[in-house]
Every structure is written in C-alpha cells, then in structure tokens.
Amino acid sequence: MSEAGCVNLGINSLLARNDKNMLTLSDIKPGKVILINGQPYLVIKTDHLKVAMRGAVLKVKAKNLLTGNILDDSFHGAEKIAEADITTKKVNYQYRDERNAYFMDNETFETFELPLENLGGKEIYLKDGTDVKMMYFNDKAINLELPIKMDFKVISAPPAVRGNTAGNITKPVELETGAKVDVPIFINEGDIIKINTDSGLYVERVNQ
User: Fold this and answer.
1) Cα–Cα distances in Å, from 130 out to 25, 33, 95, 148, 165?
2) CATH assignment of 3-82, given 3.30.450.40, 3.30.360.10, 1.10.10.60, 2.30.30.30?
3) pLDDT digits (tens, 9 = 90+) for 74-106
C-alpha cells in the first residue's frame, strides 16, 4: 500500500472512531452526557418537535456537570452532538465541611475533594465511610452518580398528632445523613425508609 493510502486509511479510521462518539437527535435521551462548548452536560429532559420548513427540532434541558448550571438548548435536523467521554469508578466518601466533600480513591488510596456546589445537593445522601460512584471527565473527578433510590435510617421523628390521620398527612423527619424529608405520619424514629435521590421524596418504608 502506498504512503498516501496509509495516510487516508488512518484518517478514515480516526473519523470512524470519532463518529461513534457523535449522537443524532434520536440518540439524545435523558441520562446521556453530551459536550456543549467543550463541557459535559447531563441531559435531564428532551422534547421532540417538528417545525415546518426546518424539519425536526430537539429541545434539551441539561445540567453542566462542572458548574451545576442548567441550560436550555435546541438542536436541528441532521445535526450531530458529541457524547462526552465519561468514566466512573468507586471511591470512598470520607466526610464534608462547609465547602467541600472529601473522598478516597479505592485504588490509589489518595484523598481528594470536590466542591459541594458541584454536587448539586447530592451530599445530603452521602454516608460516611461508604463507597459511591464518581464520574470522571478528562481524568478529573467532576460529580457523583447516585442510585435513584437509597435506604436511610430515620434518627429523629416527631410523634403523630392524635386524630390527625385523614388524607395524605405528612411530617418532617431527619435522616442519618442530616437530610430532612417529609414522610407519612406512621414513620417513627429508627425506621429505615427509601428515598428518591433525584426528587428528594419519600418512597416507602423498608421492611426490617
């Protein structure tokens, strides 16, 4: 094969690899992480529209995983968007202070911190000494990937008010991580409950 042929083959292979990381409008769904202006955005919501003359339009609401900012954007027709190269690995959550959350790499045992503002409120679901999934972009820790539903122990719960049992009556309780959540009045201190970490809402009491 000629030198020119080898060069063309190399370029074509590179383009093929790059094309695998490009998403069409139909590929972009909630949960995907895309690149916008070189930064990773987690797709939160999508809305497919058809506009006369302009063809398909995809409206996207996405969260910047570096800053926590929310972006509303639109993509059109045959436009392709790069998928962010995100990797995950387990790290151990140590503790947090007023500014940062501190973790330990389970492979290297090195500790590192992440600003609380990057976590978008997820820190209230972290239990000291437990493993969590950390998201990495360009080899840099950027955010957490929590399970949608997690179990927590109730450490403080006011007693139900006598006679106040009709309808969907709730009361505030405190979880072992310090998080506050509204729960049904039958929940007591010491109960284990399941929480949706996306919405922050009570799901159910866990049988012990």
Assistant:
1) 38, 25, 10, 16, 37
2) 2.30.30.30
3) 888 888 899 999 999 999 999 999 999 999 999
